[in-house]
Amino acid sequence: MWASLGVLAAITLPLTVIDIRVHRLPNVITYPAGLAMIALNGLAVIGGTNQALCLTAFLSGIGCGIVFLALHVASRGGMGMGDVKLAILLGFGGGWLGLATVVSAIAAGFVLGGIGAVWALLKRKAKRPAAIAFGPYMLAGFWLACWATLSGNPLLTI
Asked: What is the pTM (predicted TM-score) of this model?
């Protein structure tokens, strides 16, 4: 669990800065992070970690990927493939803390993204339809949900 969260911690700042600047979540960061998380999951199974927990983490990543891929298709590219790949990573990481954390992270990301979009429209920095960098909101929602879960704070947990 901690190793997967460490991988996500290591890529949070670079992905946030890059997405804000150029509206991209580059494969050069997301692919190696995904491979590292899959390898860490495999090592956890070999090392004797609860296999059900490992399976939950893996399936959470796949589930998040499917949901976000459907959103990508439905929005006709309004949500980028970088967001889909990031969702898989966040599902892998959050799955170690349970399905409630994963669902809370996704919900929090959308709430924060909605607040950011409204703020941008109010500040006239964005026009409708506007492209916003959604990755930073996904990451912020993820870390907020992790904090809520690990601290026992029921604020975001479902």
From this structure: 0.90
Q: What distance, in Å, lies between the first and last C-alpha atoms of the chain?
A: 20
Instruction: For 83-125, write each residue's pLDDT tens digit.
Output: 999 999 999 999 999 999 999 999 999 999 999 988 888 877 6
Pairwise CA distance, residues 4 & 101, whole Å: 14
Question: What's the token pair of residue 140?
Answer: 């912020």
Cα–Cα dist 124/82, whole Å: 26
Phi-psi region of 25 (alpha: psi -120 to 50; beta: other; left: phi over 0): beta
Q: How far apart are CA 139 and CA 18, in angstroms?
A: 13
User: Helices marked H in 97-134 — which ranges?
Assistant: 99-122
Neighbours of 89 (CB within 10 A): 27
Residue 152: pLDDT band (50, 70, 90) is confident
Residue 62: how many CB atoms within 10 A of its CB?
13
